[in-house]
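Subject: sequence -> structure tokens, single chain

Hey, anyone have a minute? Need the predicted structure for the following. Not urgent.
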Amino acid sequence: MKKVFLIFGLTILLSTALIAVAITGDTVEDPVCGMEVEIEKAAAKIEGSKDTIYFCSEACKEKFLASPCDYLDQETLDKMGVTLTSGQKAPCSGESASKSLSAPAKEASSDRECGGCARASTTDEADAADQLGCDGNCGNTRVAAINEFHEIMHPMEAAIGSQDLPAIKTLYPQLALKKEAIMNADCPDGACSHRFDGARKNLSDKVDALVTACESEDYGAIKEAFFEMHDAYTALDHAAR
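Reply:
Had a minute. Here:
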């Protein structure tokens, strides 16, 4: 009888594990920011003949293409069968490339991305962001409204990357609503730095500018306004830790 119960218990555990895998999906690390990316939901990718590089955002993909040697070495690219096109920077070679997918560049730097969160563009915002560095942990503050804003921001970025104007029109009003929630949110004791109020006001202004750009349907203006807003969000996210 004990043996029967043991087998039954193991069956239940195995079934639970399989269901969990089916629900969560396979994940890989974004080589630019180190963020865990669910393959089926990756915002961007570069396909090779043997494997694929996945990114949490178009911003990280663009960063990779601008300087692939900072993130992957030539041996890794060859194993994946990745050949960059003539419109992209040449692959890595020699000793200049030292990164690989198994060891993504997680350290902070002056122009890196943070789990899809664009680098702050002003000195004050940069100082706020640099206090924690780019840890790939954006959207994980103790202020629920800030985290909920982040959840809308990523599909908005994907829509902008694919120039999907109908999706942009659907998403930007949601960002505006989430912005209002942030402006009315209380900050838990000890969770926010002295920069919080200023960073929150700056985000509000950038969201308003994005709304104006979206209503104009000028894609170039939308993209520029979005990344300025993204910078402001990064600073606020770090100020709310």
